[in-house]
Amino acid sequence: MRLKGKNALITGGNSGIGLATAKRFVDEGARVLITGRDEKTLALAKSSLGSSAISIRADVVDADARARVIAVAKENFGNLDIVFANAGIAKSTSVVDTSEEIYDEVLKTNVTAVFLTVQAALLLFRDRGSIILNSSIAANAGFPGSGVYPASKAAVKAMAHSLASELAPRRIRVNCVVPGVIRTPIWNRGRSPEQGEERVKQFLKKVPFGEIGEAEDVANAVLFLASDESRYITSTEIVVDGGFSGSHGAV
User: Fold this and answer.
1) pLDDT tens digits for 118-152?
2) Secondary structure of the chain in the HEC alphabet?
3) What are the domain boundaries of the chain?
4) What is the CATH number of domain 7-240?
5) Residues recognised as catalytic
6) pTM of the model
C-alpha cells in the first residue's frame, strides 16, 4: 500500500476532487482528516470513507477553525505526512462586475487560507512529507468572465515554488496539481444544470481528448505526489486537462 502509515489532511474533502482524493488515500492505507463547510456533505463523505477517516466542519478562512483542525489532527494522528490544500471557490464574474467583496473573498479563500493552512499544518509535519496545492488551468489561460479566479490560482503556483524552496532542507516536497475541465459540483455552483452543461461544452471545444475529466483523474495525480514514488519531485506541477494546455489542435 503506497500510503501505509501516513497521516493526511485534505481541506475541502467533502466533495469533488477532495473526496475522490480522500478515497484514494484511504484505499492506499492512509489515515485521513477531511474538512468541509457543508455539514451534510461532510457527514456523507465521512460515511463513505469508513473508519480510516475523520472529519471536521471548518471554513479554512477562519483562523479559529484552522486551529481546531490542527488540534484534531494532533489528537487523533499525532503528526502529519501529507497535506492536500484543496479547498477553494470559483466566482465567475466579468472585470466590470467583480466587486471588491468578491475579489477579497476569492483571494482570501484560494490564496491566503491555503498559505495559512500549510503554515499551521507544519507544526505537526514530519520530515520527508508532501504538500500538494490545487491550482487550475485558468492560471495560464485567459477565459472571459472568469474574474479574479485565475489570478488566485496563479498565486497558488508561485506559492508552491516558494514553499518548496524553504522546506527543501527538511525534504518536504511541495507541488501543484493543475486540473482542467473536471466534473465536480463547482461547475454548476451558481448556475442551473443546463447552464453548467453548456459551459462544459464550450470548454470541451478546446480539449483535444474531447471529453470531461473526472475527479478521480486528479486524485490519481495527487496520490502520486503524496506517495514516496515522487520522493525526488518538488516545486513542479502535474497538469490534468486532457491536453488543453499543451495543444492548439482543438476546435
Assistant:
1) 999 999 999 999 999 999 999 988 777 778 999 99
2) CCCCCCEEEECCCCCHHHHHHHHHHHHCCCEEEEEECCHHHHHHHHHHHHHHEEEEECCCCCHHHHHHHHHHHHHHCCCEEEEEECCCCCCCCCCCCCCHHHHHHHHHHHHHHHHHHHHHHCCCEEEEEEEEEECCHHHCCCCCCCCCHHHHHHHHHHHHHHHHHHHHHHCCEEEEEEECCEECHHHCCCCCHHHHHHHHHHHHCCCCCCCCEEHHHHHHHHHHHHCHHHCCCCCCEEEECCCCCCCCCCC
3) 7-240
4) 3.40.50.720
5) 149
6) 0.94
